[in-house]
Amino acid sequence: MTRTFLGMPATAPRGVGHLRGDEPFPVAARRGLADPQLRRNLGHATGTIRAKSAAVIGELPDWQRLRDAGAAIKADVLARLPQLLEQLESAVTAAGGTVHWAADANEANRIVTGLVRATGADRVIKVKSMATQEIGLNEALEAAGIEPVETDLAELIVQLGEDRPSHILVPAIHRNRAEIREIFLRRMPGVDPSLTDEPAALAAAARAHLRRTFLSTPVAVSGANFAVAETGTLAVVESEGNGRMCLTLPDTLITVMGIEKVLPTWRDLEVFLQLLPRASTGERMNPYTSMWTGVTPGDGPQAFHLVLLDNGRSAVLADPAGRSALHCIRCSACLNVCPVYERAGGHAYGSVYPGPIGAVLSPQLTGVADNASLPYASSLCGACYDACPVKINIPELLVHLRAEAPHPPAESAAMAAAAYTMDHPALYAAAQRAARLSRLAGRRGRGLPPPLNGWTLGRDLPEPPRETFREWWARR
């Protein structure tokens, strides 16, 4: 793959993979709203994370300055992304690694599958990775006769349950302890039938199941939270230690990374290692922060491959109004404060990126027409913007994408008529007089009559004034 995709215009083919649902958000959300157990699970989990995050953020007097720094670094990255990616490639190659460029999910899957086949392995261990979920790597590996094994506890629960992730940070957030116990008893070999649903017991069962796999699998696949262009260093942060095992024990390590994850310098990494754990897990620092640079003889994997994934990101970068979605560091803070996500659940969004950031990122990666309902999956309350550690103005992006989404012909015709009317003073004055008649008819804010009431079903119609400004001005 060449680097030419870095200059793709906005009309380039959009991303593929697990970024689209089978049905619009409103249809899928109704099922979530009708599931009281799901709502209890989500409410408890997001409430707990919010409280922990608020406590550790409150300890920092310069939190807002850190947010400003994170936003500024990300803006700088996007302003010179091609240059930084080529610098990263040079540094990784100089350190003994190999860099591959993938324009879309299909190409990334071909690259990874080919690399695994070349080792002769029929199984890989995986670190939790949004990028590999995005491209559907597990399905591609299975189709090639290669078994992917998720080693993150929540990802393992999702995989064993033949389920889909519903949260960026906690993929099994929609499951409670009793449901997890049932999945382990049904799908995990060698589990003691007397297994309880205590968290410690469930974690111990998963640890025993995975330990043999860690020690006998020669190939690992990971994502990356950050990559430093200056040194060629990759970083993964996690809380369980499974990532450390995957990144150090195998002979071959393959990392799939979205091109927006690059940072210019080692010093820039310091900012994000303060922002990410506090905003995501409510910790001062992640228990495990693993960094590696290329290959070190006799220490860790002896073959390292970095797959740089575009999959629609160049098209997002080409949109000056929408590109700030690429600032996202996948902390999930916006999900944990979103009233829509907490009630509808992550599966309603269809994409591997749920919640507010998914509502702006997925439509841009696929093309807005393919995910036209997602920009409306928000009340525009602004809680996501306040919580975002890199200050992505998600409500503003949602409004931008709503303007780009296709609209029903009747609505488009009505808006065109309104624009024409407002551009002609005599017509506008007549429309104001007609609106006052609806006041006399007693509708008083109940919306428009059928069939126009579909538009006002979710919108408040302002009550017409007793006297227009023009009338007031003429009278005075």
From TrEMBL:
> Which PROSITE patterns does this one have?
4FE4S_FER_1 (PS00198)
- A single Pfam family it belongs to is LutB_C
The coiled-coil regions, if any, are none
* Keyword Glycoprotein among UniProt keywords: no
Q: Does the keyword Acetylation apply?
A: no
Q: Name one GO molecular function term.
A: 4 iron, 4 sulfur cluster binding
Task: Return the annotated region ranges for Disordered.
Answer: 1-21
UniProt domain 4Fe-4S ferredoxin-type: residue ranges: 325-392
InterPro entries of this UniProt entry?
4Fe4S_Fe-S-bd, 4Fe4S_Fe_S_CS, FTHF_cligase-like_sf, Helical_ferredxn, LUD_dom, LutB/LldF, LutB_C, NagB/RpiA_transferase-like
User: Can you supply a Gene Ontology BP term from the record?
Assistant: lactate metabolic process
Question: What are the entry keywords?
Answer: 4Fe-4S, Electron transport, Iron, Iron-sulfur, Metal-binding, Repeat, Transport
Top-level lineage group: Bacteria
How is this protein named in the record?
L-lactate dehydrogenase complex protein LldF
To which species is this protein native? Micromonospora siamensis
Q: What is the lineage of its organism?
A: Bacteria, Bacillati, Actinomycetota, Actinomycetes, Micromonosporales
